Amino acid sequence: MKVRVRRVSAEDVPVAITTEFIKLESFLKLANAVPSGGMAKNFIQNGEVLVNGEPCTMRGKKLRPGDDVRFDGVTYCVRAAHAD
Length: 84
What we know:
Blueprint lengths: L12 E5 L4 E2 H7 L6 H9 L3 E3 L2 E2 L6 E2 L4 E4 L2 E7 L4
């Protein structure tokens, strides 16, 4: 029997990217929301991932700074990495 533990977060989790965009599947791995691309694929195809409040089933959805991804009770905010 599989048991999924849902994380509870009172805050948004910012995740910085260094490119113009990142694909949804890669973003979930970068944010450590999932341990593998295969798991990301399954969650996305099952409609368990929201992008900007809407269910998204496209693994290759391009995310840009300012987009929000909600998965497993946590909201991840796409942010641009600042070059100092």
